[in-house]
Write a structure and sequence with these properties.
Layout: E1 2-6, E2 16-20, E3 25-27, H1 56-67, H2 70-81, H3 86-114, H4 118-121, H5 123-126, H6 132-165, H7 167-170, E4 174-175, E5 178-179, H8 180-197, H9 201-230, H10 247-270, H11 272-275, H12 281-314, H13 321-325, H14 331-353, H15 355-364, H16 371-384, H17 394-423, H18 448-462, H19 486-505, H20 508-512
Antiparallel strand pairs: 1-2, 2-3, 4-5
């Protein structure tokens, strides 16, 4: 059963949209295609319902593959470095991922219902041109993350290959502060990533399907190996928190919680890039709910257990799984560890940090930039940012980098969710998301209400940022107290500001858009 509805707006014979019995919407296959203009290309067009085939397992595998990576592993270790014990660290990570799951499901709904990627979804609230603003914010963050993950993958090749090839590999002539062999490993891993993404989203889906169980097996094998060598998990689980459970703990807990939310706040925006291929809302909801909070929490626990075993064996906790794997003596074990590191890092980096900016850059210049071109640009920019400095200090990594990123992206999420769920009740005019002069054109393609909410919400969320590269008193000293709650402040303030401005000024019938 399906219901065909003519879309609104000016112009003769606009494409019609079809609503299926399960609630998913597509443009009528029998109608004329979307016209070619500066706001559409093949990668940005709605995915036809016939091609929305991702099942619960596909989404579950996507999250298992993305969560099982080196930065996820070191999240718990970073929190312990800040003074938490293992229970506090795992609790913080588990709670953060339950919280970020909510906006993930809310924004993911639009992808499955309409088959649209994140930058097109953002057009409903920001306007056809204004959507480039949140898209570029998201793309910039993704490029930095891409560089971080690529450096980690290259480091894995360098260290583990050095174990097999000998001392000359690790002590080669230096260039830019690192051996040339490490730069070579970095470039090699980058080329592998580009080769996978160049084959498109279907290749990514197949890769995630087998990468997810492989990485789990690899992590459990590392746990089994260190357990045998340690004769148990060692003393780390018995070490008390340096913070206790009083005021000192809460001073660290809230900014750390915002940082943990910030870790996946990127995906809470661009999850429609994946859910647009969803076979049903049930598939994307169940797959994400089963995949994100459970996987991240269990992986954090696994990292603590393995690290505690390393302390028993080597007399010091080795938080970096690459460095730990390099302690192996068996060539077969080292090769298996190297393959696991490569698959784990590839899995998260391509899915989380290449897909989104590729669509975002295509949205900026649809006539010039395709998905593949956008992926290549992401790869180049990610290298140019020199992002390895961001993870050299857990204070900078968790409390500054993740906190600021979470605050900014939480602001965007608040606007998207307010517009789609509170004001439009999930009803969008699909064709007008691609058509100048339609329901989402606003003022020359910009919705000033969304831009104002973004700027004001972003100021409240990150204006008080302090420490690391920021002044000790904060960028805006009166806002310093809000910086520790950046994601929550950004999300709530932008949501309220956007709803308030829209209700106070009105948008007119055309701007309301849509057929549910």
């Amino acid at each position: 059963m399906r219901e065909t509805t003519a879309t609104g707006g000016a112009g003769a014979g606009p494409p019609r949209q079809v609503r299926h019995a399960d609630g998913r919407v597509e443009l009528d296959p029998a109608a004329a295609a979307l016209p070619g203009n500066g706001f559409t290309n093949e990668d940005l067009r709605p995915v036809p319902v016939a091609r929305r085939t991702w099942s619960t397992y596909n989404f579950l595998a996507l999250w298992v593959g993305m969560a099982h990576n080196i930065p996820s592993w070191t999240l718990a270790s970073g929190l312990v470095a800040l003074g938490m014990d293992w229970k506090q660290a795992v609790l913080t990570i588990g709670l953060a991922n339950l919280i970020v799951l909510a906006p993930m499901l809310l924004t993911g709904h639009a992808g499955t219902k309409y088959g649209i990627p994140f930058p097109v979804f953002a057009r409903a609230s920001f306007g056809l041109r204004g959507a480039n603003l949140p898209a570029l914010v998201r793309a910039a963050v993704a490029c930095a993350w891409f560089g971080i993950q690529t450096w980690i993958g290259g480091e894995g090749i360098f260290l583990l290959a050095g174990k097999l090839l000998g001392e000359s590999w690790r002590t080669a002539a230096e260039f830019g502060g690192y051996p040339w062999t490490q730069w070579f490993s970095f470039l090699l891993f980058w080329l592998i990533e580009m080769a996978v993404i160049a084959r498109g989203m279907e290749t990514l889906r197949r890769f995630e399907n087998w990468a997810a169980p492989f990485v789990i097996v690899g992590a459990l094998a590392l746990l089994a190996w260190i357990t045998v060598k340690a004769g148990g998990f060692g003393p780390l689980l018995d070490q008390p928190s340096r913070l206790g459970w009083d005021g000192d703990f809460w001073k660290v807990f809230f900014p750390a919680l915002m940082g943990m939310i910030g870790f996946w706040s990127t995906l809470s925006l661009n999850i429609p890039d994946f859910t647009r291929f969803g076979g049903s809302q049930r598939a994307q909801i169940r797959g994400q709910a089963l995949g994100l909070p459970t996987t991240m929490t269990l992986f954090a626990l696994l990292s603590v257990l393995v690290t505690s075993g390393s302390q028993a064996v080597y007399g010091e906790p080795i938080w970096d799984p690459i460095a730990l794997a390099a302690r192996m003596e068996s060539p077969a074990g080292i090769l298996f560890a190297l393959l696991t590191v490569l698959v784990a890092t590839l899995s998260v980096n391509i899915a989380a940090n290449v897909v989104s900016p590729a669509y975002d850059l295509a949205n900026l210049m649809p006539r010039l930039v395709t998905f593949r071109t956008g992926a290549l640009i992401t790869g180049v920019v990610g290298i140019a940012l020199f992002p390895w400095k961001l993870i050299s200090d857990p204070h900078v990594y968790i409390l500054t980098w993740l906190g600021v990123v979470g605050g900014l992206l939480g602001t965007v999420a608040g606007i998207l969710i307010a517009d789609y769920w509170l004001l439009r009740r999930t009803g969008l005019d699909l064709a007008d998301l691609y058509r100048p002069g339609g329901a989402y054109w606003y003022a020359a393609g910009w919705n000033w209400r969304a831009v104002a909410a973004l700027l004001l919400g972003g100021l409240l969320a990150v204006g008080g940022s302090h420490g690391g590269p920021f002044p000790a008193d904060g960028l805006v000293p009166p806002l310093k107290g809000l910086a520790d709650y950046g994601w929550a402040v950004g999300f709530a303030s932008s949501l309220l500001l956007y709803v308030g401005l829209t209700m106070a000024t009105g948008r007119g019938g055309r701007a309301r858009g849509g057929h549910g």
